[in-house]
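Sequence, please.
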């Protein structure tokens, strides 16, 4: 059973929702690159590859909300 976290929690994690979307988008690109590498191995004949079927944007946003994604603002001292 998937438990959804309120989107308002993004305001507590990041400075604003726009920043949270940028962080989640960058993480989704990272997750998708890993998935594409697994697909390439699968095409090469590797039978022990497990591919994530969910959308990477949803996975990335959930991981940001759960605090699994660490990030640091470049403009802070």
């Amino acid at each position: 059973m998937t438990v959804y976290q309120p989107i308002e929690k993004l305001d507590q994690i990041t400075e604003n929702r726009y920043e949270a979307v940028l962080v989640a988008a960058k993480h989704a690109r990272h997750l998708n690159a890993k998935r594409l590498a697994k697909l390439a191995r699968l095409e090469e004949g590797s039978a022990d590859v497990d591919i994530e079927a969910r959308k990477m944007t949803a996975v990335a946003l959930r991981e940001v909300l759960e605090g699994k994604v660490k990030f640091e603002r470049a403009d802070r001292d």
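The two ends are 41 Å apart (CA to CA).
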